[in-house]
Amino acid sequence: MYYNSKTIVYFDGNFLRAEEAGIDLYGQSLHYGYSVFEGIKSYNTDRGTRIFKAEEHYERLKRSAELMHIPFDYKVSELTALTYELLEKNGFSDAYIRPLITCSPNMSLSKGQKSYLSLLAWEWGNGYLANNLKIMTSRFQRPNPNAFKVEAKVGGHYVNSILACQDAKDKGYDEALLLDEYGNVAEGSGANIFYEKDGTLFTPAKGSILPGITRQTVFEICSELTIPVKETLFKPEEMKGADAAFFCGTAAEIVALDSLDDVPFTKNWKDTVSSKVQHTYQKLVRGLSL
Ligand code: PMP
Prior knowledge:
transferase; pyridoxal phosphate; BCAT-like_N; D-amino Acid Aminotransferase, Chain A, domain 2; binds 4'-deoxy-4'-aminopyridoxal-5'-phosphate; Branched-chain-amino-acid aminotransferase; globular; 7 helices; BCAT-like_C; alpha+beta
């Protein structure tokens, strides 16, 4: 599904066939989840293929590596150029791009010694989540910020996301909503959350979330459209039965939520400011003016 015999990847300085890229059984990343990665999208626009917010994603990748003490010295401009080259070699335009930094063989619990950069891409049309998701409050909390660097996109953190997402699916929901250690709403398993009440948007403040690039884009759109938006801490009860809510993330884009714990969001989606934000986001990523 992600690759075939023709797929080209970038690995440790070379472009090669995905099938030829081996995995090191002794790598520190495989054993301990000690890797950092990004999720980026490219879009087919009037001006050709455009990677949305490449600079922001690669700045975050470098920051994640730094926070994890993984040596990594590629420049943002180099990473962006390599990604365009990868897309061209594969003939992709609307695609999902997965940069991944892994570490060399090392069974000790010390910092990474040598790192390897992989750039993978696969074709991807619309967001990975359908609209109108039924979500449930998860019994799995987001990682405690005193135990992890939650603002870094680290492989091992996603075990928490897998547990929460799978638990929600097993219970008949589409996705999970994870809380922080104090019971405040944090985020989805792979996306940030907003809810709407009386024309204002609310989203969890930073602290226990991955502060998403899409979340930041929503702030920019709100400023452009003069939609009030507040970053604050709140409990799930405060957003239940609100006018509307959505998840946002690079892969998810902006997806409407149908209900939280079976309590529906009440307003017709097309009459909400959230739907304006969704529409504007679609124009923005395709390089059209707001
Ligand atoms: N939270 C988590 C846990 C995520 O995995 C993601 C996806 N990267 C997001 C939020 C949204 O981040 P972004 O908008 O930068 O994709």
